[in-house]
Design a protein that fits this description.
This protein is α+β, with helices and mostly antiparallel strands. The protein contains 13 helices and eight strands. The strands form three sheets. Strands 1-2-6-3 form a four-stranded antiparallel β-sheet, with helices on both faces. Strand 4 and strand 5 form a beta hairpin.
């Protein structure tokens, strides 16, 4: 992918006129040391946040080509949820988790994890009744994804994003209905429609990977080359642990996504955001370009972890860098 100069992007007059007076970084909680729920933002109903007009531009940009329109159509097609069976099945947490994992992998999911619901996963103004959440990952075809950002003549990259969102919709609704058939409550949360849940922090706690400098998860197998969906449920589950394998340290020394970001939005140091010190992407720089360039996606496409077959080699290198324990008496 060609290196783009950060100074080369200037928002269009239409985009500039759509921008609100308030900073998106302020809404997102940049600089805040106290924990709180996130405010509704992009991909919530446009009347729920000040960037609604920019979101409409982004929606149109994503669907500028027929191939992209066709791909995203699947993300908005889903079956009705069946009633919860009156009689609950009786199995151990481990057995239910194994059965749910097997079902998810047989119905288009590539990654599976589970954790308990925590307050900071829930967007302000929403409620989640179920105590547990299952996270699903759907891997991209990297050769297609790397063609982002899309142009009016080439919608291959953004269409690939739409295809994986569509897979996430099918996978999450299928799993939710399977869980309901076992007698447990279940509610699907597929992308790209934001709702009550923040999927990234839940997915990190569910063991799907570490947060990368580009604001997306890095998985030890797929890198950042996947999309998320979720299912909340009261089915008893064996809960997963976060998976720390060195991606955070790798990001601290890597500049690939920062150098490739057209609007220069990827911050070089961690920031305090709603009470957590973490990697953060400058919303006010990122979103104008994102809106006008079909969801962009450059940062996850260029991430060294995302290239197929590379993650295993990076894990070996990181393992070699781990400090060796000193022998006793040394």
């Amino acid at each position: 992918m060609t290196r783009r100069s950060p100074s080369s992007y200037t928002p269009s007059a239409e985009l500039i006129s759509a921008l609100p007076d308030v900073s998106g970084n302020l809404i997102n909680g940049l600089g805040e040391r106290e924990q709180r729920r996130a405010s509704p933002m992009f991909w919530h109903p446009p009347d729920q946040h000040p960037f609604g007009a920019v979101q409409e531009i982004a929606s149109a940009s994503c669907r500028a080509t027929q191939v992209a329109r066709d791909a995203f159509a699947g993300a908005y097609e889903y079956p009705a949820l069946i009633p919860v069976a009156k009689r609950k099945g009786r199995q151990s947490d481990k057995t239910w988790t194994e059965a749910a994992t097997e079902f998810a992998f047989a119905h288009e999911a590539d990654l599976f994890g589970a954790t308990s619901i925590k307050d900071h996963y829930i967007v302000d103004g929403y409620d989640v009744a179920e105590p547990n959440v299952i996270l699903l990952g759907m891997a991209h075809d990297w050769e297609r994804l790397r063609q982002v950002p899309s142009t009016p003549d080439n919608g291959v990259g953004v269409a690939e994003i739409g295809r994986q969102y569509a897979r996430g919709t099918r996978a999450s609704y299928a799993l939710a209905n399977w869980i309901r058939a076992q007698g447990f409550a279940a509610q699907p949360y597929p992308g790209p429609r934001a709702d009550a849940l923040l999927l990234v922090p839940a997915a990190i706690d569910a063991g799907l990977g570490e947060l990368g400098k580009h604001g997306s998860i890095i998985n030890r197998t797929y890198g950042s080359n996947f999309r998320l969906a979720a299912v909340t449920t009261d089915m008893p589950l064996d809960l997963y642990c976060a998976d720390s394998f060195g991606a955070d340290l790798f990001c601290a020394n890597c500049q690939v996504c920062s150098d490739a970001c057209p609007p220069d939005a990827i911050m070089s140091a961690k920031q305090w955001v709603r009470g957590v010190e973490r990697w953060y992407v400058d919303f006010d720089k990122c979103i104008p370009y994102f809106a006008e360039n079909a969801s962009c996606g450059v940062c996850i496409a260029v991430c060294p972890w995302s290239r197929p077959g590379v993650a295993d080699r990076l894990l070996v290198k990181l393992a070699r860098r781990e400090p060796k324990p000193r022998p006793s008496g040394a």
